[in-house]
Amino acid sequence: MSLLALIPSLPVVSEARQSPMATAGLLAERYLLERILGVGGMGVVYKAKDLLRESLGDPAPWVALKTLNRDLREHQGADALLFGEFRLGSQLRHSNIVRHLHFEICPQHQHGFFTLEWVTGLTLEERLRQAGIMPPALRLKWARQLVAALLHCHEQGVIHADLKPANLLLDQHQDLLLFDFGIGRLKDGGDARFRLNRADLDAWSYRYGAPELFHGALPSMTTDLFSLCCVLYQLLTLRHPFGQITTDTLAPQSVLPLPASRHRRLNPLLVNGLSVLPEHRTVTLSELAAGLAQLSAAPEKWLCAG
Predict the structure, then answer these.
(1) Which one of 192, 193, 244, 258 counts the least CB within 10 Å of its CB?
(2) Does pTM surpass 0.85?
């Protein structure tokens, strides 16, 4: 079994006002909460020990456990909302997507939670902020893994809706894994009853969200493509494609990003995916995957040094 750790921990005391579960200790008589890994706009993620697995001799019985924060937990459809995220993630089976394990309702607290595999590592956001070398070959590997993960999502009809470096994990084997489907959706809209109004949550990333999201458009495979190309560009160049400009302010006449590599075929694909107008984004994920594959024979030749 692959046991994978989310992001560096935060003091548990800081979450006491966010969730009564912070002091609960044990959930569903099975999961022992150890520490908070992260607190977001919608949820709280803990490191927890699975006591059942421990009792059966598992030497590494750790999981990541996610529950909603206090404000959302009081919403009438709170458990359905959390189950919706779990339902999306549990449809996906890919080596570059964090696995969703179990959804449960704690009998004591009457609130839902779900568990994910435990991943030891940093987020891509944290890695990009660190000093140190990131060789072109490694960055290209991550780029290809990200495209493969998103392609699997779309093949299963799942829209991630929040692709950004903070939602990408780099594990102890230097592999990239996609996680956090909290504002995701199904392409066919079949999960509508599990969703809140994302606009009310101000959920879109001002650095990676597609421009149309800020004007009322729904998340789509096309908005995922824009976010993907932002991250790919940053992996290949170590720069954001639009510098300090936030994507909600982009206009159709905005200056195009500089070439992301020395490879003539790949650059037009990325620029197409970064088009401000969604109808101009015609590149496919398969075309991006093929373009990145052409760099793999000599990544140092095509990409800037890290």
Answers:
(1) 244
(2) yes
